[in-house]
Amino acid sequence: MSDSITTRGPAFARPGRRSFSFGIGATGLRQIGLIAVLLGLWELASYTLFNPFWSSRPSLIAARLWELALNGELWLHTSTTLQEAGAGLVLAAVIGIPLGIVLARAPEVARTLDPVIMGLYGLPRVALAPLFILWFGIGLFSKIMMAFTMVVFIFLMNVMEGIRTIDPDHLDLMRSMRAGRFYLVRRVLLPAVTPWILASFRIGIGLALIGAVVGELIGANRGLGWYVESRGGQLDTTGVFTGLIVLMVLAMLANQLVGFVERRMITWR
């Protein structure tokens, strides 16, 4: 039986379907084309259908981006928001993943804590932003904690669900063959949980950015959220859309990075 499994193994790997580069294929070209069409329609509509005061236009946004890049404000605000969202996302992974593993391995404790966890998860964290500013100040830490609370439950629940999907018979079979605990973790638990962790990162990227931006809207002196709020206060729609476009680009690039890591780590996909 082992010989037949060894013989058939490579057939499931499908190396031809793996992509280890960021090369632009047909899908990438279609995506770029779609974005170009949408931007072209937006530009055209701003001349024919509505006043650009209400929604600006791509050409004005591009000019503003160039201006911000030249005077250094683009990097200042972008790096600040990236630090806040990135630190919150990593902190959520560092705490949420081990906690999810522990709760999945202790079902009685998980059932006891379930109402509390779901209550905290259902709490609108945006409403906590003023408290975080009061507790932690207007510096980076309050925004990091805001991003952390937006994401940590995603990691926690996804990891718990990933471990629950492991076939108990598979574990019993490995134990009957005298597999040690670390071998089970390396060969069974981690491969089963990895797709769920990567999915958590995909979801968490947007939520971490939202948390950081909300914190900046409440109280900050730099960051993309602060820039959007300050431009909105001056009725500068071009500035508002510039900040929003930068946030969208950051989320898209981070999602592509996670997808690249996913293709490298999960070869059977």
UniProtKB/TrEMBL annotation:
Membrane topology classification: Multi-pass membrane protein
Domain ABC transmembrane type-1: 78-259
InterPro entries xref list: MetI-like (IPR000515), MetI-like_sf (IPR035906)
Superkingdom of source: Bacteria
Transmembrane segments: 20-42, 85-104, 116-138, 144-167, 188-218, 238-261
Primary location class: membrane
Alphabetical UniProt keywords: Cell membrane, Membrane, Transmembrane, Transmembrane helix, Transport
Pfam families for the chain: BPD_transp_1
Family annotation (SUPFAM superfamilies): MetI-like (SSF161098)
Subcellular location(s) of the protein: Cell membrane
Family: Belongs to the binding-protein-dependent transport system permease family.
Protein name (Swiss-Prot/TrEMBL): ABC transporter permease
